Amino acid sequence: MKKGFLFLFIFVLIAGICFFNPVLKQGFAVGEKKIILKGVINGKGSPNFLKGANCVDVSGNYAYVVSYDDNSLSVFDISDPAKPALASSVKVPVYEGKDFGAFGVFVSGNFAYVYDDGGVLLIYDISDPVGKGPQLTGKLVIGPPEDYKAADSRWGGIFVEGIIAYTVDEVSDGLTVIDVSNKTKPAIIGSISGVGAPNYLDNPCFVTVNNGYAYIASGSDNALTIIDIEIPKKPTFAAVIKGAGKPNHLEGTNSVFVAGDYAYVTAYDEAALSIINISNPLSPTFTGYISGKGNPNYLEDAIDVKVVNNYAFVSSVTNNAISVYDVIDPGKPVLVDVIKGSGKPNYLGAVNILKISGNYLYATSAADNALVVFDISSFTGGDNKGTIPETAGTEGQTGTIDRGGVSILRQWLRIHNPNSI
To answer: Sign of dihedral through CA atoms 26, 30, 35, 37?
Structure first.
């Protein structure tokens, strides 16, 4: 009788702890949390055009990959993630005789927006990804061609929300705001630039947008820079958090992902993932970080981060690795799992940009010329019979651009009516 009572007491105690302790309830890194290789497609030149695969975005059953060295936009059928297959591919036009390449891609609706590091935005109609393939509909030269031709580095990024595209690049040292309501005639409507104070936009290479603010990784300013874009025609400096080493650990910022009240930032030169509280975008504050080259964290030259369901996935271009961190406590990220290795079987040589869609993680590999698909259902809680959205992040959202829930109509008015706010 006493043994039975003791067993019941212990059972109730454990159940109570698990129920009322959110850490235990959510679950820190445990053995069953694994990132698992699912499928690979690779090959430079024809037919896959994945030489120097750089960036990927996903829409429906298709993955859109831009490859720097092949200078191509390739579309892959991922309806069976274990067997990604080429659907179509097009060459991205560049300045004749210059070593420029396709650098970034963002898919919104029936269009793929490609940033070419020659300082060009290209818009492709992807309404028929298999038959016609991507069809070039619009092109915009962002800055003076001679400036991009002369620059040693022209890295940049693109984000699209509604009828507005946002680009950053290391030549202009700034953010460019582009009206893409007319897909054949995109037009620059606003910009902000400047190295160091007051705008802190030295060598920006990544931009994401959330609730009326643009969050920019400004690599040479070692900063996460926040720009108010409530009025797209008049982007204005909102705030910055910066500094190599203690206390902010932001040396060589390279990418940023916003989820809820936090911005997750990769610090390329610091081999770190830093987490910034942005609940007040006008006063960002450091929350936590994790760093380390090689074993165990594999964050050397950390280049991209994506977050879903309180897990951060970080790619390391030098360690040829993707590391996963439990960030339920953003002040103390905890390593969960690592998958690494160039060549067979994981094809993560110089792994670059990541994308999460449903229960899968898609990764580009510049050295292995590959698109790699990983099953992350143990982190998303899915069963791979359906898909779930990314966690309250910024990628893939369309329709509104600011904290007031502004409609696409209001966006249009703000651009075309000088009296509109």
So the answer is: negative
